[in-house]
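Help wanted!
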Amino acid sequence: MVYATRKFTFSAAHRYWRDQWTREENARVFGHLTVVHGHNYTLEVTVRGPVDSRTGMVMDLGELKRLVGDAVIARFDHADLNQDSLFSSGNLPTTENLVRAMWDLLVPKIGGERLYRLRLWEDPTFHVEYFGG
Amino acid sequence: MSGLRLTRSYHFSAGHRLESPVVDAEENARIYGQCYRQHGHNYLLEVTVSGELDPETGMAADLGRVDAAVEATVLRRVDHYDLSATVAELQGVITTGENLARTFWQWLAPALPPGCLHRVTVIETANNVFEYCGEETERGARERR
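Answered by r_m:
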């Protein structure tokens, strides 16, 4: 089993706000994150599998780039995450929720066996890893 | 557990030298080489926690609490100090990356919600990285939870 990781970058805006809560409650829990702001995100996608003896590859990284580009980067790059249908109905676009949403978008494309880990960096000081489940 | 692991990165600068009290100077110089001399690093510290996702906040940990715990239990004690001389809590500890990672874990774990600390990573230089995930017994208990 070999693990291969490809990095992607995208930039997006978001804010944390619950309509059900008062202004004071939102400010207490989310602080300055209630204001619309943005990040340069980095997404690391790790796939795993046996090395194909003909190509010497776990997966064609060009194919991986296309799949992630179509399913995730095209959707979220230079977008307002709060406007995405995945983040309506009270599902806030936190790094935790975003990485899980990306997992759900990528599993049908890459396959649950091959997709091993997503690591989403909101900025150089904070990242979340997700292994599914 | 939710399958989510959250990592925050911090930095601190500190002096140190590696010296074992149980061997003589010649042997220390042989074991530790240039690290036997007084020197220092711009350290990076990564703290990884895991937790249940709160559906209301979309968050699996309170990063403000993690920041406060790291500041109070680790950074305040080590930033701009000489780890091998002026940090009382490190007396008797040979300040290798291994020992620092394990010591920081011991300082930090009680300041965080039980079982949420997953890994402490001490990056001494870009080439030297030390990870500690707790003892096997702690890890087993954490994973069963």
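OP: Thanks! One thing I noticed: Chain A has a mean pLDDT of 96.
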